[in-house]
Amino acid sequence: MSVLHFSTYADASEVLRHKDLRQSLYDAGAVIMDQVLLTLHGDAHRLRRVLEFRVFRRDFFHRYENTVFPRTMAETLAPFLAAGHFDLLDFAYRVTMNLTADFAGIDRPARTPTETEQLLALVHCFSEGATLVHSTRNKADVEVEVRAALAELETDFLQASIARRQNLLARFNRGEIGEQALPSDVLTVLLRNEDKMLLPPDLLVREMAFYLQAGSHSTANSIAHAFHDLVCWLAEHPEDEARLQNDPFFLQRCVFESFRLHPASPVAWRRPVCPVSLPGGDADDRDEIVVDLHAANRDQHLFGTDADRFNPHRDIKKPTPPWGLTFGTGPHLCLGRDLDGGVVPGDGADPATHQFGIVTRLLAELRDRGARPDPANPPTSAPHTKRANWGTYPVLSHGS
Asked: Does residue 389 belong to any structural domain of this protein?
């Protein structure tokens, strides 16, 4: 077996688009990731992606950003603001978890602090299980915890969510209600297409758990990274405070640049399903392919000699996206890219109708509330993982 490494942007892009390379980074986390959308390959992946993509349309994201997200953000942020100090990671997980539960299709009927705490604990457990390859804990212990969490998700949340949607679908099929009365979420799409998907119950639970953790884990970390990068930049470039006030798109440029520097996973792993020809050589199913996203997003040929530094004024030529390969490319391009980051504004873009993405929207709200790092409590790194994420990030605010 050989391990082939790809670290330039051009090579990484080509490898990620190759149709005969399957996902392998999450093999270690099979306890939750086995046969979920992200790890499927070939025809099975295309079928499920096409069906679930019905939820991830741009008009859906625009509605979420402008109607669902403001309500969820205000609801989640209120108790934190009232205290005048809070942990940014904790808040980011809570607001993104609530959003992710909405579009995944996991009902939260009580909407109480106790229910939120329970679901948040499950999300943290699922995130650790999904990224098991980078965990420093005993893997068998983590797998036991994840199996228990999956059972809890099914019993306490998913069974009722499924029953409610099956009842609505039955009424729809009888002509008692119209299409607009059906929830617009992944679970409804899957239940509506059971004859095409043939998802056994345990896989349906894993698919919901995958969405719950993927949507909240990566986005929460992106929020913390972007907040930190912006704080550090403004400390060295105070003149850009005025730019933030006068240019409605500048904050989104800052978010794009932070995305580029901090991909959710620093690497992508692939394994050939048949003999393939790749940049620099051939490979077969005995070989492991490692795509260094961290390095590719710092390729000086595309991003300049200061590519390893945060610079929201960076001039990145099309067609290279300003976030690099952070959201991937090819068959496994992240479905939630436009929800997190919004769209790149074109010439003459109207701020009133532009889709900025929830990370930019949330940072704007935090800035309006005077959120700033707590000088008495510096942020700490995340424990039990090799990934360069924040574990805590205490901030102060003006309060409510």
From this structure: no
